[in-house]
Design goal:
Elements: E1 5-9, H1 20-28, E2 37-41, H2 42-48, E3 52-53, H3 62-68, H4 80-90, H5 92-107, H6 113-117, H7 119-123, E4 138-139, H8 145-156, E5 160-166, E6 172-177, H9 183-189, E7 204-208, H10 210-220
Parallel strand pairs: 2-5
Antiparallel strand pairs: 1-7, 2-7, 3-4, 5-6
Helix pairs in contact: 1-8, 3-4, 4-5
Length: 221
Amino acid sequence: MAELELVPVKTRILTDKDNIVDVIEEYAKDIVGPDDLVCSAESVVAITQHRYTRPEDLTPSWQCRLMRRFVPGEGSMASLYGMQAAMELEGEWKMLFAFIIGFLAKLVGKNGVWYKLCRQASLTDDVTGTMPPFDKCIVYGPADPDGVAEKIKKRMGCYGACVADVNDLKRSAVLGHSRGLDTQKIAKILIDNPFGNASQKTPIVVIKNYGKFAKEENNKN
């Protein structure tokens, strides 16, 4: 059985002046092989795309103030400015109507409807949710994560690539990926959050031997 090894890749502090594909090639070209999977933290991809804003640049609307009262105390949407930031992209009325639909869905036992209807509600990271100096910023979800993953795969000549949203609360999701990958398996492999977006400066993780592992898993089934 192929043995997986998760290798965090240390980089400099990345900004919107960087291209994430160029950065991965610069720092990981000597690590990545044809059977490896390259994973990038979603917040860093978003930062390189200039998808962030500052709380002082936002003016919370009445819809934002109303909805925030009903959001539990954890997570970015519990923040007044985190909520407003998501609304800037999704639209204030869309967010409000989706929120109402989500509330009604909860009454019949369906959870998470609001977050499915308004993706930025789940993807937006509030202040302190990402690496310095962007810990004073609100960071949106990345644009076209599937396309980003395909570009990484093509440039690096690896088995595959993905953009992942992982935190220390055992929440792991693959937001974008190159073709042919099992995103649920990848999310499980990343569940212990090998990324380090703060002082560690390791926003890239290479899963060594993933291609061999995936082929062996498919042969079992």
